[in-house]
Design brief:
about 400 residues, about 25% strand, six-stranded antiparallel sheet, alpha/beta
């Protein structure tokens, strides 16, 4: 009886093995990037542009603004993986180029990230990696994109149009982008794409530098000139004259000062844990009609280590901070006490664990929980007490836990 199975006489893995021996950039299955140029944007921000191989092109049909990649970098024989936000879209001319036909063609064949020269991997990429160096990469992914705008907001817009007897023009949800420092990098492609789609976009950028020294000032000004629906506010936290609603940091007053229809506004936020805490605190202080919570409109992208009190209730914070639980690694027959994230506490106990981005993005730290209860510090979700796949970098133990490690 025919089963539809067709044997693969020459396996792609074998072809991949041969092709990479002929040239390390060639691969049928593995997306690879080749460093082609470095561009200094400011004292603390450098753009790196990479050529993409055929496997990358075939597996990623373009990418959304706000997406990221996981880049694998070998340093002194140790493989590190980090997540970096993409700057711009495949057909979007980078603002620091001349915009000629050669630049546009190059942009279609390359991918650009912007990073700060700090940390082991970032410093290596900026100061040590030679042009032409080849890296393994994931394809662009992530939830920090326009596709994540809730269907409910689109339904609300459709209902509003029906009520106003305007069934031709569908109102798009306004977008508020909130960034702290280098957290503005994923906003570059996201803001431009949203404006091109017809969204009204407001950008709120908190930084410690002055507006005149910002490398992005010219770019935001160009967008504001091209799109009247774009508004940006640059807050220098060291200059009181730039404060919004008289407050140095993000607050309910500063959000209300924007005069946006917050109930219908989609909020994208990227920055430090402190900024995200301020945002969630401000959202909880703003009352919206029909018992709607502004927190439901927030999509976050964060950098730095996750901390165990980002979205936890007061009761959970008290439990997590004051009570330690035992985490047992079944395969290793080792255990350690934990009151914070599983990954960090394991490392503090001298145990080496798999990890990549340490932000809940790349999945490299994922393992199986045999039993016990954990809580995700980013979403606040509490697990069951049975077998489950979890990420150690963003989960804290709520009871004694057994991991299949």
């Amino acid at each position: 009886m025919p089963t539809g199975y067709r044997p693969e006489f020459i396996q792609s893995a074998f072809i991949d093995f041969i092709s990479t021996r002929l040239h390390p950039f060639w691969s049928l299955t593995t997306p690879k990037l080749r460093l082609v140029t470095k561009h200094t944007l400011s004292d603390d921000l450098v753009a790196l542009q990479f050529e993409i191989n055929n496997a990358f092109k075939q597996q990623s049909d373009g990418w959304q603004g706000g997406a990221h990649i996981n880049l694998s970098i070998a340093i002194d024989g140790i493989l590190h993986q980090r997540s970096y936000s993409l700057v711009g879209l495949p057909h979007q001319t980078l603002w620091w180029t001349n915009g000629n036909s050669r630049d546009k063609k190059l942009q279609r064949q390359t991918l650009t990230i912007a990073i700060k020269p700090q940390g082991l991997v970032s410093n290596y990429l900026i100061n040590q990696a030679a042009l032409g160096t080849i890296f393994d990469s994931s394809i662009p992914s992530g939830n920090f994109t326009l596709e994540q705008i809730s269907a409910n907001q689109q339904i609300k817009s459709a209902i509003k149009n029906m009520e106003t007897k305007n069934s031709v023009i569908e109102e798009l949800a306004p977008i508020l982008c909130i960034a702290g420092g280098s957290g503005v990098t994923p906003m570059l492609g996201l803001v431009t794409q949203a404006l091109q789609h017809g969204h009204k976009v407001t950008l709120l950028h908190y930084n410690r530098t002055s507006l005149s020294s910002s490398p992005l000032q010219e770019y935001w000004q160009q967008l504001a000139t091209t799109y009247p629906s774009f508004t940006y506010h640059f807050i220098n936290t060291e200059d009181a004259s730039t404060y919004l609603a008289g407050t140095r940091h993000l607050s309910a007053a500063s959000l209300l000062a924007l005069n946006l229809p917050l109930a219908d506004t989609q909020i994208f936020a990227c920055g430090s844990q402190a900024l995200l805490k301020e945002l969630y605190h401000a959202a909880s202080e703003i009352n919206l009609p029909n018992n709607h919570s502004l927190r439901d409109n927030i999509i976050i992208e964060n950098f730095g280590y996750a901390v165990p009190d980002l979205n936890l209730s007061d009761a959970t914070k008290k439990t997590a901070n004051l009570e330690k639980h035992t985490v047992y690694l079944r395969a290793r027959q080792r255990q350690f006490d934990s009151s914070g994230t599983l990954l960090v506490d394991a490392e503090q106990a001298g145990l080496r664990m798999n990890y990549g981005c340490r932000q809940g993005i790349c999945q490299m730290c994922r393992c199986n929980k045999v039993n016990g209860v954990v809580q995700n510090v980013q979403t606040g979700k509490i697990s069951g007490d049975g077998f489950e796949s979890i990420q150690t970098c963003i989960n804290v133990a709520m009871t004694d836990v057994v991991l299949d490690i």
